[in-house]
Amino acid sequence: MSFPFSDDHDMIREAVRGVLQDAYDGGKGPEHIYNSGTGYDAALWTSFAQELGMAGIAIDEAYGGAALGDLGRVVVMEELGASLASIPFSPSGTIAADMIAGVGSDEAKEEWLPKIAAGEAILAYTDGHDALTVEGGKISGRVNMVLYGAQADVVLMSLRDGDTFKLIGIPKEVEGYSAETIETMDPTRSFSNVILQDVAMTDVLHLGAGTPEQFDAIVKTSFIGLAAECVGGAQKALDMTLEYLGQRVQFGRPIASFQAIKHRAADMYIAIEAARNAVYAAAMAEGDDKIEAAIIAKAYASDAFFEVAGHAIQLHGGIGFTWEYPLHYFFKRARANRAVFGQSAREYERLATILLGEAA
User: Fold this and answer.
1) C-alpha separations of 200 from 134, 176, 197 in Å
2) Three-state DSSP class for 214?
3) pLDDT, tens digit, 9 for 90 and up, residues 194-252
4) 3-state secondary structure of 250
5) Which residue, 88, 98, 66, is CA-closest to 153?
6) Contact between residue 311 and residue 264 where contact means Cβ atoms under 8 Å apart
7) CA-based nearest residue to 147, from 208, 99, 86
8) Secondary structure of residue 170 in the 3-state scheme
């Protein structure tokens, strides 16, 4: 399959890679970010979103974006995955932007999409329709594991309203709102538990509404970005491994010359290329096919990243298990990505449901 990457995509990849390489040397990253417990690099986010202008890569030009769609977004996400950058592009520039573009009112689009594109505001999103309750004009509930919830200026949530969902926004300064940063296996990203305690409906931003199917489709389509991040991380882990295999000498020759090592490296390469093709195909898909392709991409790419990162650590031998060597960050990101939006087994169940429904 051929993919229609343009000169614009190539320039974007080069520009993003340059900025990230300056900030993160080979995935090591500033130790104060990875060990601080925040999982957020504010300085890099300013460079990436405001100075480089990448936060709005897929947002329509009418709202200040570049309008390069999912293909442009996966180019960026691959580079972010390769660097393990601690910035909120995935929640803000992907799912939150898509939610507002998909089910937001005209007023919400005009106000918030330009702010996201310019990097002036960080938004996060979480499904709240099963966790939130409304009583006496006040909202209460708790949603766990919200990506960059603590750093978000506004957390978007779905709120059940009869047979439809409302898209609401909770500004971080409203009374009754709190976001508790939690420690996870992956220190390169920020996750939070978001708690609403009697937040007045009058303090909530009412941004739009849609059917449960619309909300679900937007969430599933956002899997493409996460899958692209997995591909970028897996490719970097393989690159690091191949460099090491060519340098490590055993029995008088580089261990890369051993047949068993070659087979393992070849298996890693094949898994990455298959995942890459799944991601690019999902980015190009349209209509209902896009949801199916996004599920496939997320399930396969997250599994491939986890397997490649594990093989990479084994092939590095003792150094692969040392804290000072950056490879363990890739393994932790891979393990975390398998759980974001549900394990891959859940994605295969979703895919089976779609396919069986079509067969019926």
Assistant:
1) 9, 8, 9
2) helix
3) 999 999 999 999 999 999 999 999 999 999 999 999 999 999 999 999 998 988 878 87
4) strand
5) 88
6) yes
7) 86
8) strand
